[in-house]
């Protein structure tokens, strides 16, 4: 249990609760859920510029990271086709990969196919089910993809000023504006209560909020004096109580709850808002293909990790289809902006390609 780990090392309840957010982020779980301690450890995997477990902002926004990967690939002869949806994987008579078909009918022939889509899309939508082992299909269908996350992007006309650390008179960003700011995290019990509400189909009345202001470090993201604020919030159930879906009214009501909470910490925040984009779990699934809105393509629980990710006997990136590899967050070791799954999958694919 995460709570036992934190109680062993720390005394301060606000510190324990703030650390606990990294154990439940993206997970329909509470700090009291068995196995939650793993997700906390997962967040310190890897390194940044030689510093183990460090995090950082991407200059130019997260899209700049995708562009950097794209530039590295094209420099080595890769061809990238954006906005070209794949509708199915092409298979030969012996069930081996022969390429992919695009929605416009174009066939792209290849001896290897690496899928960065979720296991659900890869194996349940792009492959004929009769080509896969029944127990494998059942396992993929059973993956827990519940997600508590609603992402809110906000444009503001001035820097938020927090009661705990008011802004400087010149309005310039202070050190805390350049960090990750955790709200409603005064105690782990608050996080647990927010989780319990969501399990009953209700968005948390006092949601966990992780707030960052990337424009405080990267001014090019917003006009002079203005800022972009990224809010990672939970808990919001995928389906609301009574089977209701997230309509515009429910979406706006939850966003207002989040903004009311921020207002308590930083008076004037609501008045500074000039634009907002609210992405509920259903929006994250529809727009980005995240199953259930889950940012990790599936829960990072102990029964869905290591040799069991995405399914027992298939944690080595190869799939039941010869020549088809899984290289995204649904593969080992899971989600996060670290590229481990992709790097490992590429190495396996290269090894196999040499024998074709």
Automatic annotation (TrEMBL):
Q: What is this protein called?
A: Pyridine nucleotide-disulfide oxidoreductase domain-containing protein 2
Q: Which organism is it from?
A: Struthidea cinerea
Q: Which GO terms describe its molecular function?
A: oxidoreductase activity
Q: Which family does it belong to?
A: Belongs to the carotenoid/retinoid oxidoreductase family.
Subunit comment: Interacts with COX5B; this interaction may contribute to localize PYROXD2 to the inner face of the inner mitochondrial membrane.
All copies of domain Amine oxidase, residue ranges: 34-196
Gene this protein is translated from: Pyroxd2
Identify the keywords attached in UniProt to this record, alphabetized.
Answer: FAD, Flavoprotein
Q: Which PANTHER family match?
A: PHYTOENE DEHYDROGENASE, PYRIDINE NUCLEOTIDE-DISULFIDE OXIDOREDUCTASE DOMAIN-CONTAINING PROTEIN 2
């Amino acid at each position: 249990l995460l709570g036992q780990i934190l109680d062993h090392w720390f005394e301060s309840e606000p510190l324990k609760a703030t650390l606990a957010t990294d154990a439940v982020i993206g997970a329909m779980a509470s700090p009291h859920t068995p196995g939650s301690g793993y997700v906390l450890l997962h967040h310190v995997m890897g390194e940044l510029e030689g510093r183990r477990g460090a995090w950082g902002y991407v200059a130019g926004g997260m899209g700049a990271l995708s562009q950097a990967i794209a530039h590295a690939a094209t420099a080595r002869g890769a061809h990238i086709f954006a906005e070209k949806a794949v509708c199915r994987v092409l298979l030969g008579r012996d069930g081996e990969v022969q390429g992919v078909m695009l929605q416009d009918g174009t066939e792209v022939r290849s001896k290897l196919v690496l899928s960065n889509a979720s296991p659900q899309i890869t194996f349940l939508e792009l492959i004929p089910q009769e080509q896969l082992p029944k127990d494998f299909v059942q396992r993929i269908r059973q993956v827990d993809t519940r997600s508590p996350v609603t992402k809110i992007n906000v444009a503001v006309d001035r820097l938020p000023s927090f009661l705990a650390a008011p802004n400087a008179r010149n309005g310039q960003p202070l050190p805390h504006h350049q960090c990750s700011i955790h709200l409603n995290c005064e105690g782990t019990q608050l996080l647990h209560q927010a989780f319990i509400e969501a399990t009953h189909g209700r968005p948390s009345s006092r949601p966990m909020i992780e707030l960052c202001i990337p424009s405080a470090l990267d001014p090019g993201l917003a006009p002079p004096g203005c800022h972009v604020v990224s809010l990672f919030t939970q808990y919001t159930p995928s389906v609301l109580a009574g089977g209701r879906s997230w309509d515009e009214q429910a979406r706006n009501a939850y966003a207002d709850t989040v903004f009311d909470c921020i207002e308590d910490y930083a008076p004037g925040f609501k008045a500074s808002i000039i634009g907002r984009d609210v992405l509920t779990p259903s929006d994250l699934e529809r727009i980005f293909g995240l199953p259930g809105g889950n940012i990790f393509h599936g829960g990072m629980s102990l029964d869905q990790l290591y040799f069991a990710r995405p399914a027992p006997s298939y944690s080595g990136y190869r799939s039941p289809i010869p020549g088809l590899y899984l290289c995204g967050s649904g593969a080992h070791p899971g989600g996060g902006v670290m590229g481990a799954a992709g790097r490992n999958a590429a190495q396996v694919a290269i090894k196999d390609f040499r024998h074709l």
